[in-house]
Amino acid sequence: MPPKSKAAAAAAAEPAAVEDLFSALHRHIEAGEFPQAVKVADQVLAAAPGEEDAVRCKVVAHIKSDATDKALAAIRAAERLPIDLSFYKAYCYYRQNKLQEALEILNGQEETAAVFQLESQIYYRLARMTDCLNSYEKLQKISFSRLGCLWGGTGHNNKY
Predict the structure, then answer these.
(1) Domain boundary residue among 83, 116, 131?
(2) Considering its fold, how many domains does the chain have in total?
């Protein structure tokens, strides 16, 4: 059998290297070492450009480090990728007190608990209390419907 070429050996080692980098990324995130997590996410992206989980980890690590400008830069850098980072963008704008921009981004988003919670916080900051209350009521409905699913029904007449 002929010896493997350097390119073939590098290609075989790459998945293991990326897997090791993801393990390191996970350790840094679990330890709350967000600046280090960004560095490792960059290493993953160098080895596997456009890797969705690495992009998300990088954005969230910047947010957790209170570096919303860097998070927004990472989001802009990923715009060509088929990744929806609009919630994170809205959250960054919320943190920067660009409330109208954040609301505009949230409009049209899938109605999730996270979206309703952020939306209600934005409305609260804007002193739009009726809208804030409406968002919290939607959030409450989502939360109760999830509990019903967990309990195997609507939440009524359960023994638990």
Answers:
(1) 83
(2) 2
